[in-house]
Amino acid sequence: MSSPQERARALAVAQNFGPEALDLNRELVTSNPGDLASRTRLARCLLEAGRVEEAEAEYREVLRYDSKSRIAANAIEVIQQQRRRAELAAMGLTEPPRGVSVARAPRRAASPTSPRPSAEPSRASLRGQAVPHVFNGLQRRDFAELQLCPRGEIQERFAPRVLDLIRRVNALDSSREIAGVREPGRRQLFRLGRGDVHVVAGHWFVFNLGGRWEPQFNIGMYGGVQKGGDWLRIGMGFNLTERGNDPDPAEGLRAARDHFRRFQALLGSPKRSLFTGWMIKENGLIQHDDGAGPRLDLADPSRSLDVILHAEPTRTEWVFFGKWLSPDREQDAVVLADPVSLVRTIDRAFIGLLPLWRAMWNG
Q1: What letter would DSSP give residue 230?
Q2: Which of 14, 118, 155, 161 is the most buried (most CB within 10 A)?
Q3: DSSP secondary-structure letter at 2?
């Protein structure tokens, strides 16, 4: 039988922060107040339960023991931001994204009944800012920057930090195993050239080496509410268009459609559990054709499966299924803001997809 500590760790790895995890971690912290790992998990459990004040108190206790804890500091920052936005919303006000300057209208006398002018972030505020070369997590300001950045400047501004993230992902055992399934002996899953960070307006994405015409491991980021929201996606996709610079797009498209049909056949077999099980565990969502964000209306994996099964490859451009993280969700924001937590989340997602990837690749 596993110990309480081992059980608490196992629940955390499974992203289970429910009542059992709360009780276990409370017990561990009571018996050892200096057990910061258990205290951090306890704070997460309290957040999941909606007990925000208690969660913040536990995170502050973590910082009292370890002032350099990024997880605790980021969690407190997210809690405070959520609280501040709620207070502003109650007053009918809005808060601009942090780190983005606000273009203000000239001051003028206002009558007591005149509405406050809305504050809009400015693209001009991005000019002259240093381009980060180290990946330090994704804050709300990074999503705002992506939304505001002209398409022609996205690669310049985001590729250096994205490639730093991908270097860490390439170092994962899961990445090396996936690369080896596709090509025995290969150890690098993603290429590390600036041109391998693909961009469209308000969006960047990367996919694994050789994945253009295959089921591809894909990581991508969206900025902008009008384009479906602020999201980071982690999962697997099928690009069923001829777009790109490949020398033989017609042959590539044929191969991509064949891969997708084999995937549909797999989903129609008992092996569909590899898909539905992963989707349930990771709260997975799909993306279909021109949708800039996830299909929130298809949260039930059986409905997502049905949409994919009935997608006609010749009339479908893009199908993706994976884990979606949003800075608008408290727990997601904590993960996004911490590089270590985010890389661990990517690792867990990729490990969970390995059996499905093997089944697709090996037929």
Answers
A1: S
A2: 161
A3: -
Q: Which CATH class is domain 133-362?
A: alpha beta
CB atoms within 10 A of CB 220: 21
Gyration radius of the chain over CA positions: 22
Helix (H, G, I), strand (E, B) or coil at 328: coil
Q: In the β-sheet with 285-288, what is the strand arrangement from edge to edge?
A: 198-200, 203-207, 216-222, 231-239, 318-325, 285-288
The enclosing H or E element of 308 equals helix 301-309
CA atoms of 131 and 312, how far apart (whole Å): 42
Report pTM.
0.67
DSSP 114: S
Q: How far apart are CA 148 and CA 127, in angstroms?
A: 11
Over the stretch 336-358, which tens digit does the pLDDT of each residue have?
999 999 999 999 999 999 999 99
CATH of 4-90, one of 3.40.50.2000, 3.40.720.10, 3.40.50.11930, 1.25.40.10: 1.25.40.10
Dihedral of alpha carbons 107, 110, 112, 117, sign: negative
61-80 per-position pLDDT tens digit: 898 888 888 788 888 888 87
Q: How far apart are CA 296 and CA 317, in angstroms?
A: 19
Instruction: Give me the percent of the chain exceeding a pLDDT of 70.
Output: 85
Residues of the chain where predicted confidence (pLDDT) is lower than 70: 1, 85-129, 225-227, 290-291, 363
